[in-house]
From TrEMBL:
GO terms for biological process: nucleotide metabolic process. GO terms for molecular function: catalytic activity. InterPro entries: Histidine_triad_HIT, HIT-like, HIT-like_sf. This is HIT family protein. A motif (Histidine triad motif) lies at residues 147-151. It comes from the Bacteria. The active site is at H149. It comes from Novosphingobium aerophilum. PROSITE patterns: HIT_2. Residues 1-28 form the signal peptide.
Amino acid sequence: MDRAGLARAAATIVAALGLLGVSAGAAAQPVAPAHPVVPAAAPLRCPLAGSYDPANPFARILRGEAPVSLIAEDRLVLAFVPIDWQNPGHVLIIPRRAVRNVEGLNDREWLAILHMARRIARAQQTAFGSTGYTLQQNNGRNQEVCHAHVHVVPNSPPDPVKPATRAQQDAIAAKLRAALPPL
């Protein structure tokens, strides 16, 4: 490596050390990191790699072993009201196939989820007067259930009491079903 290459490599190392809060100066004094240092979190609940757990709550719903406030379904996906909702009208969409995260979805499943999300968002506007919505999808960190799923969360008050009762979930599901646009 020539002098210019060595100088570039040294500058890269110095910059990286600065991000870690270490000074590359002679005194090696700590410096404020450019980004906050986040402490190590608890182990991942749903790491990207791993085997599918057929005991997860969504697998139990798909097998009919757990109650669900169903809104809509087709041959590839299911849409229902979650227990730990963020707002009234919050919906989860899951594939029927046993798959840990979106990396395992095939194109048809992913498109079916997005198509259902659009239908649900329109129903949220009609049923709850929401003025927008958030699509949320987590893989690995922040993924609570190791079965691929997408949240469709309407932007509408009020904040709900958590966890939702089955009666609350069923009432929301009925309201959304009634407002669901046709295919």
